[in-house]
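Support request, please re-run this one:
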Amino acid sequence: MARKDGKDRGIFERKDRPGWWVQVFVNGRAQTYRCDNKTQAKALYGRLKAEIRERKFFPEQFAVKKDITLRAWIGRYLDGCSNRGVGNEERYGRRWSLLLGGRLLREITTEELRRLQTNMRARRLKFEALKQKGKKPKAKGWSDATINRHFSFLRHVLMLAVKESWIDRNPVSGVKFFPEVNRTRFLNDDELERLRNAMLPADWTLVAFAIETGLRQGEQFQLRWDYIDLENGVLTIPMPKGGKTRHVPLSEGAKQILRSLDSFLSSAYVFSGMRGTERPLDARAFERRAYEPALRKAGIQGVCWHTLRHTAASRRVMAGVDLVTVKEIMGHRDIETTLRYAHLAPDHLKVGVNRGSLFASVINTDSGTLTKTTTEEESPKAGRVEVIDSVVRPEGLEPPTPRSVVWCSIH
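Re-run finished. Output below.
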């Protein structure tokens, strides 16, 4: 409101005409007002600036009306989209175009989006209720996670519209997303053996390579021979999901699988297509032809291709690999993603929870058992370490047996 020299911006006094003047600019055009004194000019200037910010000042003469439908804005966004997951965004865009495509951006309200979100969830709950009764509903409905992905896409698209001044605020900002349950499904040894027996050896090779490397589906099926350095045991993913080139170390099993393939003689891709060598193998076609039928034959449920990536991380954590190393192998952006596998490493949790315990001063880090060190006052054998179970107990206090359970009032 004020300049460095003390004069208010937009408020001035003219010599040829008495009085104080206020001048404001809207879309490059100036409008001037005359006031009797400086105090009145300051008050008028502040009110005009507030109306300009709220777009209430000269709406017919100066404000440029921008009306565009959601379908047109989504189409404009997808035309210039260069994201890695553009396929998913195209699906989200088509569905929002069917739901609200004909509505103008400025007509979409938060209340309308909340009702739509509730209806989406109710459709899913109705499907589950009919399924429990043994009926076969026509539409399955979307899960809470799928609904969140759709609203996340809409929020991003409308935020760009806010930056381009098509709308004043993003209506999705007032919508609360559904909480999601993070379930990390992985295949155990028995399931892997059954799956291997249900697949052809050539098809099992792709599954085994996914577990050995931990690559995502798109990374594996788009893998080229020039990305692989067998001599140093490293393969390079130039543009992964995180947007930064990463280097994946190859296990001996992964090297053995790559050496057994002969696609390098005719194709640039490690897993070339069945009809032509100039294209990679279609991931979805392979799932429908070999992977999903094998899962049904083996009696394995709740598994998709991404489960193999979870299996790769889970097996390494259960084998004793620290979480930081697993993070680098899997290419996670932050450690929080890797921490979902922390419960699979019980050894370090067992040792960590016993440290600082009131019932032991020495911890056997190999087995996690509690031991107690007796001092010189307690025993003439200073520094003697005894297992707590062997310590002499007071008379009348029997040691608990493995099957006994002691309950107290605060349990």
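The radius of gyration is 33 Å. The CA atoms of residues 224 and 270 lie 5 Å apart.
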